[in-house]
Amino acid sequence: YKVFQAKLEEAKNNYAMQSGKTPTEYELQSINEQVWNKFIFDETYTPQFEKLGLIVSQEEHDDMIQGKNIH
């Protein structure tokens, strides 16, 4: 819980710094959901990917963002 709370505070601070304003209640809900989803992914999926030896190369990563197979 402490790790999640720290990540949530960091995300809220980042939002405030980037936007120049404090997030609204709606924006806080969105930030909370984004942080929670990333937290779950990082804590559950990522260790399993590493255990299985699954990796995404830099080339694949770049292709997902700006290549032919954008996701």
Structure description:
The chain is mostly helical and 71 residues long. It contains three helices and no strands. Helix 1 crosses helix 2 (25-52).
Observed structural traits:
mainly alpha
Overall shape: it is flat
Helix content: over 70%
Largest sheet: none
Computed CA radius of gyration, to the nearest angstrom = 16 Å
- State the end-to-end CA separation: 31 Å
Mean pLDDT: 94
Order of helices and strands: HHH
Structural class: mainly alpha
Taken as a percent bin, the fraction of beta residues is: under 5%
- How many helices? The count is 3
- Poorly predicted regions are none
Number of strands: 0
Assembly type of the chains comes to single chain
Task: Offer a quick outline of the entry.
The protein is an all-alpha fold. It contains 3 helices and no strands.
Q: How is this fold's topology laid out?
A:
Layout: H1 2-19, H2 25-52, H3 58-66
Helix pairs in contact: 1-2
